[in-house]
Amino acid sequence: MQQRTRYRSAAALPWLAAGAAFLFLYWSPITGTFQLWLDDPDAGHGLLLAPVAAFLAWRAGLSPERRPQPVAGAAILAFAVALRYVSGLAAELFTMRLSALAAIFGLIVFAWGFRQARHWWLPAVLLALSIPLPEVLIGTLALPLQFRASRLGAALLEWRHVPVSLAGNVILLPNHTLFVTEACSGLRSLSALLALGFLIGGLWLKTWWARSALVVTAIPIAMVLNSMRIFLTGFAVFFIDPDLGRGLMHYTEGWAMFLAAFGALGALAWLLSRGETTLLKRRAA
User: The pTM is what?
Assistant: First the structure.
């Protein structure tokens, strides 16, 4: 009994050492990322995605086809540590966080091989999506989305015979001015819907083409429904009350639109699942 306990303790020592080294190297980016999840609404989805990724990895368990690949794992770990060092010198937080993911990937390959990493593809994608984007990239993506959402929203208002004038991301109404800010660009809802697309596709769908179709379709769904939010805001401001363009009503519209987008994504996943079933039955016949 004592010999078995000693054997287990000896087997656990490498894991404890690897865990301690990982925390030593990545404690700062891990705690910084968690604080950003708490403080930044655009990054808050990480508070949900990271625990879900951990749960899915635990539920999937270890692959029966796993085989340790220490050489490849050690090479990936060396690359991750070098990336951590360089990004630390440059104070580049996004690259530093990516290096933490690379280190986790290297540890998995070292202990269980690439097949285990493939077995955990869905938790890996969700964990990658939980990493906040750099401010430069957010600014680059948000501005075109703001302009596109403003154009679509203004077009819908004109369709409903609302006198409107568009100047960039500013929608001018007779009794109010709507400013489509970065928060209203749809980038936040797009990030959330992409994560939901991967999650629903990974859990419900079986084929790569159905999963890809679901994730790709999440992009126009987010853009169209965000434009609908701008249209409804302008419509309520013009016909009912200018105060409806801000405050609780404005945020309520955002949540309602996101629920509608989630419903549309779920309906599409159901249709794709039916298509998969029909196709697989035909192939089997």
Answer: 0.80
Note whether 260 and 198 are within 8 A (CB): no
- What is the crossing angle of helices 2-39 and 70-90, to 10°? 40
CB atoms within 10 A of CB 177: 13
**Residues 233-281: tens digit of each pLDDT:** 777 777 776 666 565 555 666 677 778 888 888 889 899 888 888 887 7
Pairing of strands 170-172, 177-179: antiparallel
Compute the distance between CA of residue 134 and CA of residue 9 in angstroms, rounded to an integer.
42
Contacts of 51 (CB under 8 A, 6+ apart): none
Parse the chain into domains and list their residue ranges. 2-132, 136-284
Answer with the residue of higher pLDDT: 207 or 242.
207
Which one, of 64, 10, 211, 184, lies nearest residue 125 by Cα? 211
User: What mean pLDDT value characterizes the chain?
Assistant: 81
Query: Would you put residue 61 in left (φ > 0), alpha (ψ -120 to 50) or beta?
Result: left
